[in-house]
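Q: Got a minute? One more chain.
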Amino acid sequence: MKKLSAVLLIVGVFFFAGNAMALSLYDITGINGTEDYYDTGAEAAVLTDTDGTEDDAVAYLLLELAGYAGTNTFGICGYTIDGDGAITTGELLEVFSGSDSEYASIKLSFDVSGGTVTNTLTGYTATIGTTFGFYIKTQDGYTYYSQTSLNDDDYDHMLIFDTSDVASGLLGSDIVIAIEDLFNGGDGDYNDMVVGISDVSPAPVPEPATMLLLGTGLIGIAGISRKKLLRK
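A: Always. Here it is, folded:
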């Protein structure tokens, strides 16, 4: 029985240790009312305002505490996923530049049938679609994406929070993207740039197949240990 308990303890530590270290949105921003909001695990967003009348979203620069604040640029990007699950980036559309200050807002106009998105301030348009990821370009020459597999350091540089039911403090943002802009995660505070976007939701998170297999394997080990104990 001791062997079985030890195996189950390992399983518990493996699956729940990460949650103990997770940052809440309040830890990142200090905005009241966001203490119970944590990373959804999503790597992209989906436009929800698609009624055909005025299909748009508004992005807000909520916070920027970074040495690169004057040069970082943030935007949205199209992407495709092949049959093996490999992600390829598509076109990029800049939303905020280094000269933008906190609480700046930009309206993004979506042509749902045409698949394009226009930054209504700059007039630039890109073919992106209604499901899109995010990117940040930094002073040190790196571009980091919300899809971790696209990053040179294989680090998750963006946490995405579902804030659709937050009453105030986020300017009506339905999701919030909190960004770490340094290679290998830097100080991991994710407040280098924090962006809110309205009329979108987190894209569904794909089933983590490797985690599922590993979990099944650990459960199998536990089952084998139990059988051995019952035979004794």
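A: Confidence is low (pLDDT under 50) at residues 2-20, 209-232.
Q: Perfect, thanks.
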